[in-house]
Write a structure and sequence with these properties.
This protein has about 650 residues and is of the alpha+beta class. The chain has 20 helices and 19 strands. A 6-stranded mixed β-sheet has the order 1-2-3-4-5-6, sandwiched between helices. It has a 6-stranded antiparallel β-sheet with strand order 12-13-15-14-16-19. It has a 3-stranded parallel β-sheet with strand order 9-10-11. α13 packs across α14.
Length: about 650
């Protein structure tokens, strides 16, 4: 057998990276805490726990300040670049839909894609570049190399898309990287390819659920069928998170303590409460969810600590490790429906004829939606909704129709919100099944507010409502169209009023904070900072959503509202310094500067503005700050940021 030349391949490739002046890290070196931890937590290439070490790794940023982790795996044999399945996809799964550790270990691209899925599963990064490189020596002793590059992302469900084959790594160099990313963004999947990838992931969910159920049944005593369902529901809610509002619960946060409010169950319930509060669910619905989940999560036995670990932490870890990837990679309606239909099998209804629960298979639900010609303007009501499988299928069809027929991004966004919040209604009598429907719709985007725990046959009084028909309509369809136009107009007006109210409330809050800051100022200098003298610069027209201050001749801008925060982020420069309260909502603050180092007193003064214009309560607060280039915008004013430092600020 030919001898591996992997060291030669590594030297060649790493030499390229060095020549491009890229800050790459080798196998044993740290890239950043988030990525290092993800690689450690993910199943290793050999099937064990942890220990994933790409041969080289780096974190690059494009012109839009978006980060792309680059993971590289080297092999020193001729035919070890990649192993694909019959569909041309990277074959990292066996025929039994279990990880194919032989391929992952033996082939460069398969290993790199495996590492990329670790980041999708355990980090906030959603777009990763996986690179495999192999080589051999020809008869003349010259090294011949082969390079394959794949894009692994939420958009392709972590399976990966081939970007191309390259002769060297120059596409990663600063002068070529933006063009390379444009090529990545141009990749697309046909509907047939998307369907195949979804089908593949659905088969994997089957295997993961069977494995998880059997593992808990055999190894975790005292957990009934309902307990297992509620544990999965609770774990998923606790690990979804809401950017800048509710952090994702990491398994390392469960310390298996025994004091009240410090138990693992208390911590999970606390995170679920925070999540539900941000979702603006009706209070009675939140109370039902918390009460139901607490009956399982707060029991003495599940929180009992043995050998330094509670049963709850052990089960939570299994759930996150086995199922987490499916909602971290962009869990769509199809995946969620599959997940909950499989979960239904745990409830034992098939043995209890009194319950008479019959589940509609997902393919039947999809067929019914097609036959009913559901579109973006439909209203769907399911009288016996079960786990909301039919509503999920209908919502999927409505969202797809909206995407295909609405060309305005703003209009599309508003329509998607309306579909999820206003055009679906489900009724479910059984509380245990109702819980599944709620979670299903929460994952889909707040449609849960229209899932009711009621009996569709007896919980309505049958009151007849009389409507005055519009004048001039000569048919039922004409009257319906007239009502629809009226409702659309009223809805747009309501949206406008809601936005205006939000803007006014934000301005009122800013003024109240301003008044409090002035009244609590302890020196003339603090007062002068809040009322900057008029200068030629300050006479320029500025947004009324942004407040501007001058500290030692340096402009410091502060968002008065979400609108102002978005404007700050969009109009900033890469080297500006961005500030935000740590792990809680706050005003965004931007220091306009080209300097690498700023005086500590300037940073502290700007951080104090961030605190003073974000919270009323006195106390000690942590403020994170980092260059704007390290901040990635998400939806609205939500952001992800890295490489930050923290200042401790006392208010009052």
């Amino acid at each position: 057998m030919a001898q591996s030349i992997e060291p030669n391949i590594a030297d060649l490739a790493n030499g390229w990276l060095k020549s491009y002046k890229l800050a790459y890290k080798l196998e044993q070196e740290s890239l950043n805490t988030e990525i290092d931890k993800a690689l450690l937590d993910y199943a290793s290439k050999n099937g064990g726990a942890g220990g994933n070490r790409p041969d080289a790794k780096l974190l690059l940023q494009d012109k839009n300040l978006d980060y792309y982790p680059i993971l590289i795996e080297y092999k020193g044999y001729k035919d070890k670049l990649k192993k694909l399945d019959a569909n041309g996809q990277v074959e990292n799964r066996t025929s039994k839909n279990e990880p194919n550790f032989k391929n992952i270990t033996s082939f460069a691209i398969n290993g790199a894609v495996h590492y990329a899925n670790a980041l999708l599963h355990h980090t906030s990064y959603t777009d990763i570049i996986a690179i495999g490189m192999t080589g051999y020596k020809d008869e003349a002793g010259k090294i011949q190399n082969e390079i394959g590059v794949y894009y692994v992302a939420k958009s392709n469900f972590g399976i990966g898309q081939k970007i191309g084959e390259f002769s060297d790594f120059s596409f990663l160099s600063p002068k070529n990287f933006d063009a390379f990313i444009e090529k990545v963004k141009a990749l697309s999947l046909s509907q047939e390819e998307i369907d195949k990838l979804k089908e593949q992931r659905e088969r994997e969910i089957d295997v993961s659920l069977v494995k998880l159920n059997n593992d808990i049944y055999q190894n975790e005593k005292g957990l009934g069928e309902n307990d297992r369902v509620y544990l999965v529901a609770a774990s998923i809610i606790a690990t979804i998170g809401i950017p800048n509002k509710v952090p994702v619960l990491d398994k390392s946060e469960l310390k298996s303590q025994t004091f009240v409010n410090g138990r693992d169950g208390d911590i999970i319930i606390g995170r679920i409460v925070a999540f539900l509060n941000e979702k603006n669910l009706p209070q009675d619905k939140k109370d039902l969810i918390i009460r139901t989940l607490s009956n399982t999560l707060l029991t003495e036995n599940i929180n009992k600590v043995e050998n330094g670990e509670s049963q709850l932490k052990r089960v939570f870890t299994k759930i996150v490790d086995d199922l987490g990837i499916y909602y971290k990679i962009g869990l769509t309606t199809d995946f969620t429906g599959k997940l909950f239909n499989e979960m239904y099998g745990w409830l034992g209804f098939s043995q209890d004829k009194l319950n008479d629960v019959v589940l509609t298979p997902s393919y039947v639900a999809t067929l019914l939606v097609k036959l009913a010609r559901v579109n973006k303007d439909s209203y769907v009501w399911d009288f016996a909704t079960g786990s909301a499988g039919l509503l999920v299928a209908a919502m999927n069809e409505m969202l797809n129709d909206a995407k295909n027929t609405i060309t305005s991004p703003e209009e599309l966004s508003q329509k998607e919100i309306a579909i999820k919040a206003e055009q679906l209604l489900g009724l479910e009598l059984l509380s245990s099944v109702y819980m599944l429907a709620i979670l299903n719709m929460i994952l889909m985007g707040d449609g849960s507010s229209n899932i009711l725990n009621k009996d569709s046959l007896s919980d309505f009084d049958g009151t007849i409502i009389h409507l005055e028909l519009p004048s001039g309509c000569s048919s039922a369809s004409g009257c319906a169209e007239s009502f629809f136009k009226r409702s659309k107009k009223a809805k747009q007006k309501a949206i406008g009023l809601h936005q205006e109210r939000g803007n006014l409330e934000a301005k009122i809050r800013h003024l109240e904070l301003f008044i409090q800051t002035v009244s609590e100022a302890s020196s003339p200098e603090e007062i002068a900072l809040l009322f900057p003298a008029k200068t030629p610069k300050s006479k320029l027209k500025t947004s009324d959503s942004i407040a501007e201050f001058w500290i030692e001749g340096v402009k410091v801008s502060l968002g008065k509202s979400e609108k102002g925060n978005i404007e700050l982020l969009k109009n900033s420069k890469a080297r500006d310094i961005w500030m935000h309260l740590k792990d809680r909502p706050s005003a965004h603050v931007l220091i306009s500067t080209d300097k690498q180092q700023l005086p500590e007193r300037l940073l502290e003064a700007a951080a104090k503005l961030c605190v003073d214009f974000s919270v009323f309560e006195k106390g000690r607060y942590l403020v994170d700050y980092t260059p704007r280039r390290e901040v990635k915008m998400g939806e609205g004013a939500n952001v992800l940021y890295t490489n930050f430092k923290t200042i401790n600020i006392q208010k009052g």
